[in-house]
Design brief:
heterotetramer; A: alpha/beta; 9-stranded parallel beta sheet; 9 strands; 45% helix; globular; B: 407 residues; alpha/beta; 6-stranded mixed beta sheet; binds pyridoxal-5'-phosphate
């Protein structure tokens, strides 16, 4: 079992649900983004997801997309990003740090180089435009114990879901509905299938911990999925909080979110 | 047919998992439709009775004499309904959409030509239509936007990123991830995930098939060379594919823009500013920086102003089956004028890239040789760009006048 | 063939003596050319290879269903090179000009469509080209003027009289009286002295001939009714003549304009504001006052804004072989939109008169019946008029923007 | 022989050449145009040519065309025009008055009505867009002794010239070159054929007096054709004089022109 999985299972013994919160590297500036990560880690959020911005983030909604374009004006460098977040990971051993980005920036860096640069500090990668069928591309990461975190979606073809679960390691990212990041969600997904049924179907195929994502924006919503998912993913909502009320509001939002669990 | 949508190392499918099933569904319906003679007949029928195919192959006597080299023929896609080759693909995918039982299409557009073609056919097929267009392009190409709206399409300005074609494509993909159940993404060029490159190139291949017959009928031989402009690559694929591997040399002309500086052109070949990359659902040569960020582009013709290129062409170029060249903005204006003055044909600025490339090389060929240049569209749409390029004051006076009167 | 250029009491030749010999020469060359199979082949060749003929006959399923009457077919002259039927006539007369060994053509134009078509073919045939256009029309239709100039034609603004089409025609005649030795007057419609009405109608008849074959091929019968807009009458003559005396009813639609007031319309039929008269070289029904002065006209479409009409149609109407009706400006806009929204075809405002007339009557016919409406040209050219009619503000913003940037 | 022809031949016994001068009825106003006619007649010009304006004067150049359009703003009425010039004709029996117009205004009035209205005061009509082939249209005028004045042009087909000469009565209007009214002329016409040869060719076919027109603008030019033509036609030049120097200048121009002969 991967280090990330072990970590989550251990944490879950003391917490009813873990948080995974999202920051864009370089937004609004590289310094401020690092400060936001630090706040998250200081407040004991279990998993920090750092998005290295890409010019064409097709799986993201307007809030994160515009955040990425703003971040790109600060000319973020992937190598430096990995160094920066690796330092944070070392500084906060009680949390795990994941790198999220799109294929092309990673591809240009090269997956062998990426494996070398990320391990051992970074626990996993999320690449929304990397389909399971292309898993061989991330083999060098797997070899370096960096978990590729695959996505599960509602109404997924059973055979395909089995394929994903079979390759799953560390964490499975379960999307609660169709569409891009940042749209508000509800307890039942697009197809009206209940969350319970949805997640139960996945658990039947794997022991890997499950993260539930897309559209969670309040402690209220987090509490609603306690007992169902292992990890609650909060992305756009945090960015929105920052845009509404600055680093203060961002910090308060984290406090609100970690309040339970 | 491609293997898993791969053309050599290019192509493939790199889309968010959420799109997987609708892509599989499309793939299935597409293969099924192409195997159905009734569907093929339906496409041929609409191409003929709605769009006016076959388009002629026009011999240019004056031009050939002035250049003093090869005999020059033009494939007249400008005579298609909507004024460009885009309609060929739109007819194919539009009918496929109906066959799949979907009620809505979405599309990205740069110049607006694909958007207008899609809005036209959507009106005819009774499909709901939403067009994504970069805010910058909307400002540059409003007349096309006007027609899309008149045709009943919803035109969504894309304000993210460079606010041009690639961002419109991203936004269309985002729409698709939440609308795929009733919506087909009618992509406008031979790019994107499987089966789009193959499908669009296939529907456009009617161009090259006609050129084959017409060449035999008109000069009893296959063309020695064929020239086409290359934006996403659909008109080039359309006229090239039926000739791949034959003795006919195939030459693609990209937008050389203002020069080789970053952001000054839209060349994906013969420059190290373009590298193998993966984005927008597929692998190809993308113009990008050292961090893998897709780079800004420029062309006098909005239709060639794109950062990626058809994986089919990227592969054919690697295999030496297609030769890639380019033309600068000013060479394009010269070629545009020359064709207009010598033969009375007003080509689109996109197409004028192919004219520029073809005329440049025709001179050194001998009179026994025949070349075909693809006029992918007509130039009326470019009046604003051209009047500006030529600084035609009476045109501006006309506009001022018009604005005053409409108060 | 007409007798002395007469069609019943209409037609004839009423030109200054100075033009007599060049008219005789034209008459001779025209008869001679039409008797020469090589010339006919040459015309057919250019119509196919340059202009893209045959143009399709498009079935409009949605429109027919919505109207709930006859099956509606459109003859697609909008797909001709230059975007209108005008090219058919220009090809015929242009090749005749070369055959006569003349080096220069002159033409009158209203909307500018005939001017552009003439300038296009002149470029292709290497003829010097001068276009006479009313100063008012130049102001209204500058985009067409821009293209004529780009094509190398000299555009002469006519500032006398009403500064519209009829004055342009007068001025072209004046040019001809001093230039006939090396110049052919390439008139744009089926009017003027012998042999112009017959000649222009003849070159345009390819439209109706194609409709015959296409009707048999597509619905195995001749059309029950055919509709065409009537300005000078060339597109109407072109589609009507092959059917005269058959069971197909032929319906011409004139510009009803804003209403029946003097100067508010361009109706030469069904009004006593139009009387038998003689001017501009021929006899026909002219809109005129009690002193025989030709009257001002109005139409939303510059191409129908003419005071006279083809003597061929005047005669056919007298003989009950053609029925004349009209459509008001606002009915035309409605019909324009309806066709656009239902079938994705953007018709010229001139042609939209025929659409309006056809749709109005189609409802009361039964589904067994088939009607053909002639789409004489495409509507892109009318964007300024339509944007104004619909008061589309974004279009004006686009223009303001454009003007600022071009400083 | 027609009254007009007799008149010209008689006048020629005392004058080396006769003048035929042109006025547009209604330009710049009806009153002023009548005043101009009166001046012409008072100065003993042999023939007055009055043009009833038409909206589309295809045989006229810019000066007369614009003059006609200006005149039309005063809503000239053909019936009134004929009355007015008939009165002048009666008042000045030593000159002849001709009506010039285009076909359509005359057609709408009707040629029978026209014959009745014009005779006996008006000696002839000039209709530039009425070809000889259509001479039957003016039969009612001929019957009323109103001469239709036909045109002869340079390089005319001999057969056609014979046809015109055969039908000629009163006066033949010989055009000295191609083109419309008001362009300056020279002693040899377009084809370089000399005036002598040109007119001699016509005289060989008819005894009807010959008027020479188009582009004569000065006494100098008039004097040059003395001995060749019977009548010198001056049109646009007079209108130009009026536009340059008003009724004064117009009057002086007449004086200059009648100075010889
Ligand atoms: C007339 C014309 N030609 C060419 C292109 C470029 O597209 P492609 O390379 O897919 O043919 C466009 C795109 O808008 C176009 O409008
Ligand atoms: C598209 C179109 N239709 C019709 C007309 C009217 O001419 P006609 O009656 O000779 O066909 C014109 C004239 O400009 C035109 O441009």
């Amino acid at each position: 079992m991967s280090a990330l999985a072990k970590f989550i299972i251990k944490e879950r013994q003391s917490k009813s649900i873990l948080l995974m919160t999202h920051v864009i590297y370089g937004y609004p500036t590289i310094e401020t983004s690092l400060e936001m990560m630090r706040i998250i880690l200081q407040k004991d959020v279990s998993i920090l997801e750092v998005q290295f911005p890409f010019s064409d983030p097709v799986a993201d909604g307007p809030i994160i997309t515009n955040g990425c374009h703003k971040a790109l004006e600060n000319k973020p460098n992937l190598d430096q990003c990995i160094k920066d977040i690796s330092d944070l990971a070392d500084e906060f051993p009680n949390s795990k740090v994941l790198l999220m980005s799109y294929l092309n920036p990673l591809l240009q860096y090269g997956f062998d180089a990426l494996a070398k640069a990320m391990s051992p500090a970074i626990a996993g990668v999320i690449v929304p435009d990397l389909p399971i069928d292309q898993s061989k591309m991330v083999a060098p990461l797997v070899a370096a114990n960096i978990d590729p975190i695959w996505l599960i979606i509602p109404n997924m073809d059973p055979a395909r879901m089995a394929l994903v679960c079979e390759q799953a390691q560390g964490l499975l990212y379960c999307v609660s509905r169709k569409g891009v990041t940042g749209k508000s969600s509800s307890k039942s997904n697009a197809s009206g299938q209940s969350l319970e049924t949805y997640l139960a179907g996945i658990r039947a195929l794997t022991t890997v911990p499950l993260a539930l994502g897309f559209g969670i924006s309040s402690a209220q919503q987090v509490s609603e999925i306690v007992g169902e998912a292992d990890v609650a993913v909060v992305g756009s909502a945090l960015l929105a909080a920052f845009q509404r009320a600055g680093i203060e509001g961002f910090s308060e939002k984290i406090t609100e979110l970690v309040s339970l669990g | 047919m491609s293997d898993q949508g791969y053309f050599g190392q290019y192509g493939g499918s790199f889309i968010p998992e959420i799109l997987y099933s609708s892509q599989q569904q499309l793939l299935h319906h597409y293969r099924d439709a192409m195997a159905d003679p009734k569907f093929i007949t339906q496409i041929k029928h609409e191409m003929q009775h709605y769009s006016g195919r076959p388009t002629p192959l026009t011999f240019c006597g004056n031009l050939s004499a002035e250049i003093g080299g090869a005999q020059i023929y033009l494939k007249r896609e400008d005579l298609n309904h909507s004024g460009a080759h885009k309609m060929n693909n739109v007819i194919g995918q539009g009918l496929l959409t109906k066959r799949m039982g979907k009620k809505r299409v979405i599309a990205e557009t740069g110049a607006g030509q694909h958007g207008v073609a899609t809005a036209l056919l959507s009106a005819r097929l009774g499909l709901e239509c939403t067009i994504y267009m970069g805010a910058h392009d909307i400002a540059r190409q409003y007349p096309n936007v006007f027609w899309m709206k008149q045709l009943g399409a919803t035109v969504v300005p894309v304000t993210s990123g460079s606010q041009t074609l690639k961002d419109a494509l991203d936004e269309a993909l985002r729409d698709w991830t939440s609308s795929f159940e009733d919506t087909h993404y009618l992509i406008g060029t031979s790019c994107g995930c499987e089966p789009f490159p193959e499908m669009v190139a296939g529907f456009q291949s009617v161009i090259g098939e006609e050129v084959k017959d017409q060449s035999m009928a008109q000069f009893s031989a296959m063309p020695d060379k064929i020239y086409a402009c290359v934006g996403g690559g659909s008109n080039a694929c359309g006229i090239f594919l039926p000739f791949v591997g034959s003795d006919t040399e195939l030459v693609g002309i990209e937008a050389g823009g203002r020069g080789d500086g970053i952001g000054q052109h839209a060349k994906r070949f013969n420059t190290d500013q373009a590298q193998f990359g993966i984005s927008q659902g597929y692998a190809t040569k993308f113009i990008q920086d050292d961090q893998g960020q897709l780079a800004p582009t420029h062309s006098i013709s909005a239709g060639l102003d794109y950062v990626g290129v058809s994986p089919i062409l990227a592969d054919l170029s690697d295999r030496g089956l297609v030769r890639m060249s380019s033309a600068l903005d000013e060479e394009v204006i010269v070629a545009f004028k020359k064709l207009m003055r010598s033969e009375g044909i007003i080509a689109a600025l996109e197409s004028s890239h192919a004219i520029a490339g073809g005329l440049k090389e025709a001179a050194s060929l001998d009179p026994q040789q025949n070349i075909v240049i693809n006029v992918s569209g007509r130039g009326d749409k470019d009046i604003f760009t051209i009047a500006k390029a030529l600084d035609d004051q009476p045109f501006n006076d006309f506009l001022r006048n018009y604005l005053e009167e409409s108060h």
